[in-house]
Automatic annotation (TrEMBL):
Superkingdom of the organism of origin: Eukaryota
Location(s) in or outside the cell: Mitochondrion matrix
GO molecular function terms noted in the UniProt entry: ATP binding; phenylalanine-tRNA ligase activity; rRNA (uridine-N3-)-methyltransferase activity
Top enzyme class: ligase
UniProt keywords, alphabetically: Aminoacyl-tRNA synthetase, ATP-binding, Ligase, Mitochondrion, Nucleotide-binding, Protein biosynthesis, Transit peptide
The keyword Cytoplasm is annotated on this UniProt entry: no
Protein family membership: Belongs to the class-II aminoacyl-tRNA synthetase family.
Catalytic activity line of the entry: tRNA(Phe) + L-phenylalanine + ATP = L-phenylalanyl-tRNA(Phe) + AMP + diphosphate + H(+)
Protein name: phenylalanine--tRNA ligase
GO BP: any one term: rRNA base methylation
PROSITE patterns: FDX_ACB
Length: 621
């Protein structure tokens, strides 16, 4: 294990580390050997290092490491830089610049899975780990500086000098004097996976008797064909599904019917606004061109409300086989409920058996903490005799609740509070868009909700699932069909303590490595205190047009690669003379798993301004 130590003052830290078994130490300092040797105990530490086979180097500039080490010497497993400082009374700006150059230099000599350790005095880092925490502008902003070189903060812990044999700090105001290291912190950085650069993606599916292809909307490119629910998957979403169905099978005969579900629907679901679905234009003979895909809203077809009026059945769902549709116009499935309905109408459901359908569904939505443009839905369907549906719902919900609580308690001692809310008393604005969308599909009897908690996961009540009933007289006049719909992604987040839905879709292997096959564990984030950046955008809305806020949010999603976490309207006014309306929005950027730098965000903001002008016709201010 090759370890590089930079900026050593008297080499006392290097000397203590050199004794570790299996460690090859390269200890360096910025000054010449003559200057360093005049410091107390430095000559003694240098001699000890050399006797133990360590390499000692002088006049090493931590910002130019590539120039100092040949290509054969660069593969360091760990780099230490304790208490970096420009010297004397250098301010926070100069020290940020020093760190920025250091991180860029370190990236060139570090192994792919190597670590960079930076010890800072209390308050300098600017993270919540500092107690007290300095104001951001008055700190060294270490997480933002490191992000510029592709690093994320993966661990932070106290720098305990008393546990390091022989260690003594030196260098106070560039003198051979100690400085205060009480409350100092060691920051451990690792490489981030790169920000995604999306390329056009064509998806081929079987539709009835022919294979068809379509270009995937840009915002979903990294989320298609991820196969979370495959049998050999170790993803927590799949594990939650497996364990939940295993629990339910103790109370009901159970049958899975996932194998025949198409990604595409044709026609329209009653009550669902056309702008909430991802419309797709099929290309049976040839794929769309790359040029067509270059804009983020390719394949999004808009229709008026009048175009989308259609017949519905008495349960409030649009008929899959009949009603208005545009030729060759399809959309990515926003729900699995119509599949359950179609199977029922074919008479292939077994009475008394709990039938299970699951798979990803796709919905356009505003950017909020628990709003997901794609998630994995699980539909449970059971047929019972008329008059017994309420007891069936209660039995099903009680089993779902007990199963979720049982799974969660295997991971954490925190006790969940899950309740059943009647739809008539349900306050939709207080919950997530999952409940809002589901209530558009058909009449809902109950919502399965996670109550507010103090764990930090759920700041307000959140809907995990819904239940409803339906009658199909053409199938049977004596049977009632009971449905339950669950959001598997939210359940996985709840059980494993994952606070950000985007983490479920990360490409970083450190996520799945925490979930061995068949195990659910409490998730430990590998990117701590990620930096956030705020940008405002103001513009004039086209005269006489209603501003499409959903399209505005969708553009922000794909332009930023899902790094926009909040969009707030902060100002709105209308000119009395012309009637023109101006809006000003504030966008907050933050990544939960990747290094996101100021430069990255500035480029995203410029592209966002260009795209909203192109697609929404706004005039930028």
């Amino acid at each position: 294990r090759r370890v590089l130590l930079l900026g050593e003052g008297n080499f006392s830290f290097a000397a203590s580390l050199c004794g570790a078994a299996g460690t090859c130490v390269v200890a360096t300092c910025y000054e010449s050997e003559e200057e360093v040797s005049r410091r107390g105990r430095a000559a003694e530490s240098i001699q000890l290092l050399r006797e133990r086979g360590a390499e000692v180097m002088f006049s090493v500039d931590c910002t130019k490491l590539k120039d100092r080490f040949s290509s054969e010497e660069r593969e360091f497993d760990c780099i230490y830089f304790n208490f970096p400082h420009c010297g004397r009374k250098a301010g926070v700006v100069k020290n940020r610049e020093l760190l920025a150059c250091f991180f860029h230099g370190s990236a060139e000599v570090l192994t792919e899975e190597g670590e960079v350790h930076v010890a800072l005095c209390n308050g300098q880092g600017g993270t919540p780990a500092d107690q007290p925490q300095r104001e951001w502008h008055n700190s060294w902003q270490i997480v933002a500086v490191a992000a510029g070189a592709g690093f994320i903060l993966s661990n932070v812990h106290p720098f305990k000098a008393e546990t390091i044999p022989g260690y003594k700090s030196t260098g106070y105001r560039s003198q051979d004097k100690p400085f205060c290291i009480e409350g100092a912190l060691n920051h451990v950085f690792t490489r981030s996976t790169p920000l995604l650069c999306f390329t056009p993606m064509v998806c081929e599916v079987q539709l009835e008797s022919q294979k068809v292809s379509f270009q995937v909307p840009q915002v979903l490119v990294d989320k298609m064909n991820r196969d979370f629910l495959e049998l050999n998957s170790t993803h927590p979403v799949q594990t939650v599904k497996e364990k939940l169905t295993a629990e339910l099978s103790q109370a009901f005969p159970l049958q899975n019917i996932d194998h025949c579900l198409s990604l595409l629907h044709q026609g329209h679901l009653n009550g669902v606004c056309h702008s909430n679905v991802f419309w797709i234009t099929l290309s049976p003979e040839e794929s769309p061109s790359t040029e067509e895909m270059s804009d983020g809203l390719a394949n999004t077809v808009l229709y008026s409300q009048a175009d989308l009026c259609r017949d519905t059945d008495k349960n409030g769902w649009g008929n899959m086989q009949e009603g208005y549709h545009v030729s060759k116009e399809y959309y990515l499935r926003p729900s699995l409920l119509p599949y359950a309905q179609a199977i029922i109408q074919r008479g292939t459901f077994l009475p008394g058996t709990l039938h299970v359908l699951s798979g990803p569904v796709f919905r356009k939505c505003l950017i909020t903490p628990y709003s997901m443009p794609v998630f994995h839905e699980m539909i449970l369907v059971c047929t019972v005799k008329r008059g017994t549906e309420n007891s069936c719902i209660q039995m099903l919900v009680n089993n779902i609740k007990s199963s979720i609580c049982s799974l969660q308690q295997t991971v954490s001692s925190f006790k969940l509070s899950i309740s059943l809310w009647e739809a008539m008393s349900f306050e939709t604005p207080e919950l997530n868009d999952f409940a809002t969308f589901e209530s558009q599909l058909s009449k809902i009897q109950y919502f399965i909700c996670m109550e507010k908690d103090t764990s930090g996961f759920c700041e307000k009540s959140s809907c995990l699932g819904i239940t409803r009933t339906a009658h199909y007289d053409l199938v049977s006049t004596e049977l009632v069909f009971v449905f339950a719909s669950l959001n598997l992604d939210l359940l996985a987040m709840l059980i494993c303590g994952i606070s950000d839905w985007r983490m479920l879709w990360t490409s970083d292997k450190r996520f799945l490595s925490q979930f061995p096959r068949g195990e659910l564990r409490l998730f430990k984030s590998f990117s701590l205190y990620p930096p956030s950046y705020v940008h405002d955008v103001s513009f004039w809305v086209p005269d006489g047009e209603q501003f499409d806020e959903l399209a505005f949010h969708t553009i922000a999603r794909w332009v930023s690669g899902e790094t926009v976490i909040s969009i707030q309207l902060i100002d709105s006014f209308q000119q009395s003379e012309t009637g023109r309306k101006s809006l000003c929005y504030r966008l907050t950027f933050q990544s939960c798993d990747k290094a996101l730098s100021r430069q990255n965000v500035a480029e995203m903001q410029l592209l966002f301004r260009k795209e909203i002008n192109k697609h929404l016709g706004v005039t930028l201010r």
